[in-house]
Each structure stands twice: as structure tokens, then as C-alpha cells.
């Protein structure tokens, strides 16, 4: 069987499925990760850790925690089985297979492929004759999981997650088909999708249900493109169009009103961004401009009122939810790792739709900070939430202050395992004769530009070094419009909008050279555009000023009043206990801090440090306030909590009123 070519970054494949989409899909096509070989030390290490540690760990945990056993039991149901765990435990198997499949496309592994085939044997055996596959019910139909309800779909809009399981099954199956050309997983997913499509819908005899936890919308759009069967796209659109019209109406699952009437991000953050991504996919495939308007309004709400400096979203532990406008606490911030991944999905789709660099500004901020903070550098332990402050006592991470190797609800580790291998597919995109360079990392890539092969090679020390060397090699002379994203931080803008702003008066900028000659260009939607006839040997050198910067938050963010944060390039910094001989809350930052960039060999795995003069305030035994001068050390936010449990803060006092003095006894 000939393998289909998919660009696993979401719906890039929709432009390759000619003749299937109604309006042609997204106007911009990502370059598939399989065409990009990453040579970058920063991301190369992350990709290797995911391949060698995270994916094997996730598979081993599926074994240890009974995920596989659930399928075995479902193949041999019994009233004796006590159905425990979570109703969506099946998805950890599907997501890990997805990540492993992505990895195998660039690093073939016959032993891993054979292992996955053995897992799929037990998955297939658990499927009921009509296609239904949901172990939480099937293993003991008379006494199913407490969240499952007495019959199929009864609790779908509450907690059963039957459609959520379908969504992750489809995504994993498509990735596996892409990697191996085998249909053993794809056929299982199609059979389940057909079961849902037969029983759910507007037609007589069908039930009207929408997903309690969104993701099926994205997955069904992909399945439509793989199979060419429009019924899957119709089902995805049905799920969106009926949302807000069924019996359950709640902000928690974004079912409080019809999706086209929503203009504010509310409720469970992961569900929300998965839904917004699904709306973008369906809009691209159907030309439904009303969806585009709705998610545009919601995006404006998020970036101007509800996103953390780290790109994290979801302020509240209760409901894993967005808070009110400007409700952005630090120690109790939720910022689920899955939500950061979903935020990348959503912003990537908006870029594919609009070609505006502002979406990649949000994507990059999330990627380098609030997303990779969720997994240890060695790939072996995880944060579920990602707060911006820790006191070393508040057990924010599902009962711990440190990263854990697994969770009872293991959505974040398995989600990381599937996201990281697809990362190279976010670097470049193509539209006609235009090439978008969106992320900066060392790589060699083969692109198709107007049907002709073009090789692009990036060499850089980014994110620590702002110099990027690019070699453009067409097969022969070719007119290409190279569009280089100029990050917002290089244009004195922290995020789109005024939620955060730089607090210093530093002048930062950038230069672009072609074959050694400085050139100029008006920015178009955030892109520096070079329109020329390229030939073999042409070189582009980009230099971004990477001065350390201080950041203030909008005055309506109560948690950040009187405080300042530090950035350099795309990296957000924090102060952590191992580097500083004072209580972190007792620090007072001067009004105009002078910052030094430091590279310590023993800290190289954590990245470049910043150092600045500051003061520490304390109350002595007599009850008097004392100050002492200190040198404050800051590390990249993503690297915190690698050296034990203790204090950490991103936002540091610059006003005495925000300081909590250390009490000396």
C-alpha cells in the first residue's frame, strides 16, 4: 500500500487533498515536519528526550496502570470487573501511539512499530461489532464507569468522554497510517467514527448530542481529508452547530450559548482551545466565515485580557478554567500543559488562515515558556499546571510541588509525547511562491515552492543568540518571496494588545542582510519580505537585538501590581531559590535594573542566566526593617524546579508595597 502524505501539524494536509474540500482549505500550507531535519541543539535535545524517554515512559505507564488491561477486559466483558480509573484512560494509549508514530517518521524503529502492532491487537479485540469502542462501558456493560451512564451517549455532554475518546483515536490512527502505511489502527477508528455517525445527527432515529470534551471536531475534519468521505466533515460541523442548543448549557464546556454567539474565552481552557481549533478547521473546509469571526473575537479577548506572560492560559484550578478578564493570579495559576499545547494548535490555525505574524508571536511565547515548562528537560517528569510563582509548600501539581512521572489523569504527559515530535512542522509554511519563516532553529528543510524543490538551511544559537544564518538553495534560479517573521519582542511589543508592555526605554531592533548587503523592507503583517530571484549560494543573515528587558503588566491585573518581570528574546525568566541566598518574595527590584547576561558551564543545560543588582528586605529581631544589597540571579522559566522544591517567582516586587520581608529570628 502506498502511504498517504500528511503534514501532521493539524490540517495542513487539507490543501493536499485536492478536490475534496469545498473551498480549498487554509490559504497557507505548513511544510510537513517530515521535510524538516532539525539540527538545533536546543530543540534537538528536546526531540531526543521525547523519543528516548517520554514516549517509552508513557507506554510503560500504560502497561503499569492498567490502560492495556482495560482493552483486554473489554474484549472479555464480565459483571465481575470493577470499572475504575477515568472514563478517558483509553486516550493515553491513542496519544502515545500518535507521538510514537510521528517519531518513527523521522527515526524509523522496527521494534517500536512491532510493539505498537501488538497493542493494536488488543485494541481491535475490544471493539464491539458495530464499531463502538469505549472500555469504560464495554468491559462491564451492566455496571460501567460511574461517569458513563446507563446507555451509550447518555452522559456524553457530562463526563463520559465517548466522543473525546473517538477524537484521540482518530488522531492517533491517522498518524500511525501516515508512519507505517498500515490500516490496522485506521480501520478501527473509521469503524468507531461510522458508529457515531450512524447514531448521532439530525436525521430521524438519531440522537442530538455534542462532545462534552471537544477534540472530535478537529479529528473528524482530518478523517474527512484522509478518506474523502464528507459525512465526517458534516459530523464535525454538526457538533459545532448544535453546541449551545442541547439540554446541557454551561460555561465549563463552552455550551452556555451557540458557538457563533461566543466572544469571550470561558470555562475549561483545554476544551475551549480544542473547540476554537475545530472551528478553524471546519471554517477552512466549508468556507463558514461566521466561525472565523467568532474565533477572532475570542482570540482578541484572550490576548488582551486572559493570557499569562508565559503564554499559559487558564487561571483557575476550579474547573481548570479561564478566569474573568484580567484575573491572572500567579501562585494559583492553573495554566495546564494541555492548554498550552491547544493554544499552539489554535494560533497556528489562525496563522494559516490570515498569514499574520501576531499569531506566531503568541505561539512562540507559549512554546518557549508555558509549554515546555510542563516537561522536564530530560523528558521524564511533568507539570500538569504551570504557575508563575511557588512558595515550596502549595502543592499545585496534583498533590506535589515538583514534576511527577505520571498522573492518575495522565492527559498532559501523553499530550507532550505527541506534540514534541511534530514541532518541526511549525517552522515554515508556503503559499504560492511565498515562503514563511516562522520559527528560528537550526534545520535543513526541503520545501515545494510552486511545484519546485527548494532547500532552506538555518544555522543559529537561538533562543540565546539572535543571529540566524539562512541558506536558500533552489534547483535553479527561482522567484521566491521569503517572508521572515519579525517577532513582536523585536518590535517593542510583548504581546498583541496592551496586556503587557516593556517597562524600560531600551531601543531594540534587527537587521537583515542578503549576501552580506543590508536590505530594508516594509513589514507586511509582521513579516520582513524579500522578493527576488534566488540562486544557489544565496544567503540571508538576520540579527535580532537580544537585550534583557523588563515588563509591566496591565494595571487591572491585581496580582502583578508593583511588580516587574524579565525577558530576553522569546524567553521569560524567573528567580528561583537555589541561585539566591534570600527569600524570593523579599526581593526589591530597582527602578532601572542593570542586567548582565551570564553563561555558566554548570548551568548550561538550563540556559542563559540573567543577573541584576537588587535589595532584600527583612525584619530583624527588634521588629525593624533592614535592607541589604544582593545580586539576583534569574533563570529561564521553563527550567525551574529541576533542582528541588522551593520558592520561585516570575513577577518580582519593584514597589515596596509588593515586598514580603523576610522575618529573621
Radius of gyration: 25 Å
CA(first)-CA(last) distance: 75 Å
* Total helical elements: 15
Count of extended strands: 24
Unreliable runs, pLDDT <50, ≥5 residues? Answer: 1-23
Strand content: 15-25%
Based on secondary structure, the structural category is alpha+beta
Oligomer: single chain
For the sheet with most strands, the description reads:
12 strands, mixed
Commentary on this structure:
The protein is of the alpha+beta class. The chain is built from 15 helices and 24 strands. Strands 3, 10, 15, 16, 17, 18, 19, 20, 21, 22, 23 and 24 form a twelve-stranded mixed sheet that branches. A seven-stranded antiparallel sheet has the order 2-6-7-8-14-11-12, with no helix packed on it. It has a five-stranded mixed sheet with strand order 1-4-5-9-13, with no helix packed on it. The radius of gyration is 25 Å and the shape is globular. The model is unreliable at 1-23 (pLDDT under 50).
Compact description:
The chain is α+β, with helices and mostly antiparallel strands and 665 residues long.
Provide the descriptors you would attach to this structure in a database record:
single chain; 665 residues; alpha+beta; twelve-stranded mixed sheet; seven-stranded antiparallel sheet; 15 helices; 24 strands
Helix and strand layout, with pairings?
Elements: E1 29-30, E2 36-38, H1 41-64, H2 67-75, H3 90-106, H4 110-125, H5 135-138, H6 156-160, H7 162-180, H8 184-199, H9 216-227, H10 230-241, H11 269-286, H12 289-305, H13 337-354, H14 357-371, E3 389-391, H15 411-419, E4 428-431, E5 434-437, E6 443-449, E7 452-460, E8 467-474, E9 478-485, E10 500-502, E11 510-514, E12 517-519, E13 527-534, E14 538-544, E15 548-553, E16 563-568, E17 571-576, E18 587-588, E19 595-598, E20 609-619, E21 625-636, E22 647-649, E23 652-653, E24 662-663
Parallel strand pairs: 5-9, 20-24
Antiparallel strand pairs: 1-4, 2-6, 3-22, 4-5, 6-7, 7-8, 8-14, 9-13, 10-15, 11-12, 11-14, 15-16, 16-17, 16-23, 17-21, 17-22, 18-20, 19-20, 20-21
Helix pairs in contact: 1-3, 1-15, 2-4, 3-7, 3-15, 7-8, 7-9, 9-10, 9-11, 10-11, 11-12, 11-13, 13-14
